[in-house]
UniProtKB/TrEMBL annotation:
<dbReference type="InterPro" id="IPR008921">
    <property type="entry name" value="DNA_pol3_clamp-load_cplx_C"/>
</dbReference>
<feature type="domain" description="DNA polymerase III delta N-terminal">
    <location>
        <begin position="20"/>
        <end position="131"/>
    </location>
</feature>
<keyword id="KW-0548">Nucleotidyltransferase</keyword>
<feature type="region of interest" description="Disordered">
    <location>
        <begin position="350"/>
        <end position="372"/>
    </location>
</feature>
<keyword id="KW-0808">Transferase</keyword>
<dbReference type="Pfam" id="PF14840">
    <property type="entry name" value="DNA_pol3_delt_C"/>
</dbReference>
<dbReference type="Pfam" id="PF06144">
    <property type="entry name" value="DNA_pol3_delta"/>
</dbReference>
<feature type="domain" description="DNA polymerase III subunit delta C-terminal">
    <location>
        <begin position="219"/>
        <end position="318"/>
    </location>
</feature>
<comment type="similarity">
    <text>Belongs to the DNA polymerase HolA subunit family.</text>
</comment>
<dbReference type="InterPro" id="IPR005790">
    <property type="entry name" value="DNA_polIII_delta"/>
</dbReference>
<dbReference type="InterPro" id="IPR032780">
    <property type="entry name" value="DNA_pol3_delt_C"/>
</dbReference>
<feature type="compositionally biased region" description="Low complexity">
    <location>
        <begin position="361"/>
        <end position="372"/>
    </location>
</feature>
<feature type="region of interest" description="Disordered">
    <location>
        <begin position="318"/>
        <end position="338"/>
    </location>
</feature>
<keyword id="KW-0239">DNA-directed DNA polymerase</keyword>
<dbReference type="InterPro" id="IPR027417">
    <property type="entry name" value="P-loop_NTPase"/>
</dbReference>
<protein>
    <recommendedName>
        <fullName>DNA polymerase III subunit delta</fullName>
        <ecNumber>2.7.7.7</ecNumber>
    </recommendedName>
</protein>
<dbReference type="InterPro" id="IPR010372">
    <property type="entry name" value="DNA_pol3_delta_N"/>
</dbReference>
Length: 372
């Protein structure tokens, strides 16, 4: 049975299933879901707990043995299986199908997996698990939904933002600062609960508590680039720079996205279906929806030019010469971060002039004095 996260509490109130599969890459929500299942299991008498993590050379027989044996003290058991890779292999797939077929009222099994692609969700082993128990998919909270998510979390701890435009601005401020990182958002919400009593929170209170603690994610930068959100792109680059992120890591992330776009662009030109190319290039999550508009916005020639700029930037951030000898026109900007902005703009807004925003400009030099 497939179950939505928001239906978990109602499901648990009616009683436990014998098997749960929790899968998704939103670690905070997955952890909270597992905690709720564990708490309900403890209350139901599942006090003996065994944890298995699938690694290279994992002994699947040990898992099957634990799921079929009674506790030494007669307690009901909670058996947790963690598969970080999401790929159990052939032996593991057979073991999981056997596990799904062996129902034991005294053993509750909880399996955690990362995000699974459509093909894996249709595999025999996953289908067997979902049919035998409850499959709980943890969907990511999209950036546009994050302000509402923050508001709900504040309400859960007895706090709320003021009504009207100020409150919406306060929620948007938190969402911008954490840049889609739910763990960071959770920490900021908890901080607000410690700093202020229950009740209404003003924008100034939230700003004072959250300011200067942004956690910018270099991989979220690609989403802003694909979406063509120039303002967010500029803000994130400035934030990454302020937090001391290595320019070479940011360059790598942007270049990987440019290469992916170029491979897909060439594949589409060769007549391959876009959906197949997206799967082959492992484009998942929000990027999957953004890749189409980005491809229509940027040409193959522009992407090739971007890779040429990236090669010069790579030399620059590593302390080597950034430009082509004798051709200063092709040199990247003196400030590598301005060059990174220019590179990202080839995808975000290819028709715009490649001028870095004010906060990313290299420091101005004083004009040379004329001899008297």
């Amino acid at each position: 049975m497939q179950l939505r996260l928001d239906a978990l509490e109602a499901h648990l109130a009616k009683g436990l299933a014998g098997l749960y599969v929790v899968y998704g890459d939103e670690h905070l929500l997955a952890q909270e879901a597992c905690d709720r299942i564990r708490a309900t299991a403890r209350a139901a008498g599942f006090t003996d707990r065994s944890v298995f993590t699938v690694e290279r050379g994992f002994d699947w027989s040990s898992l099957l043995g634990a799921s079929q044996s009674m506790s030494l003290f007669g307690d009901r058991q909670l058996v947790e299986l963690r598969i970080p890779s999401g790929k159990p292999g052939k032996e593991g797939a057979d073991a999981l199908k056997a596990l799904a077929a062996a129902v034991n009222d005294d053993v509750l099994t909880m399996i955690t997996l990362p995000r699974l692609d459509a093909a894996t969700q249709k595999s025999a082993w996953f289908t067997a698990l979902a049919d035998a128990g409850v499959a709980l998919k943890i969907d990511p909270v999209e950036r546009a939904q994050l302000p509402n998510w923050v508001g709900q979390r504040l309400a859960a701890q007895g706090q709320r933002v003021v009504a009207g435009e100020e409150g919406r601005r306060a929620l948007a401020f938190i969402a911008e600062r954490v840049e889609g990182n739910l763990l960071a958002a959770h920490q900021e919400i908890q901080k607000l609960g410690l700093l202020y009593p229950a009740g209404s929170l003003s924008f100034e209170q939230i700003q004072d508590a959250v300011l200067n603690v942004a956690r910018y994610d270099v991989f979220k930068l690609n989403e802003a680039m694909l979406a063509g959100d120039v303002g967010r792109l500029s803000r994130m680059l400035d934030g990454l720079r302020g937090e001391g992120e290595a320019a070479v890591l940011v360059l790598w992330a942007v270049v990987e996205e440019v290469r992916t776009l170029l491979r897909i662009k060439r594949g589409v030109a060769a007549g391959k279906p876009l959906a197949m190319l997206v799967r082959e290039n492992r484009v998942w999550g929000p990027r999957e929806r953004l890749i189409g508009p980005a491809l229509s916005r940027v040409s193959e020639a522009a992407l090739e030019k971007a890779l040429a700029l990236a090669a010069r930037l790579d030399r620059q951030v590593k302390g080597l010469s950034g430009g082509t000898p004798g051709n200063h026109r092709n040199d990247p900007p003196p400030d590598p971060w301005a060059g990174l902005f220019e590179l990202a703009m080839t995808v975000a807004s290819p028709k715009a002039a490649p001028v870095p925003p004010p906060r990313l400009r290299p420091a101005a030099t004083a004009p040379a004095r004329r001899p008297v």
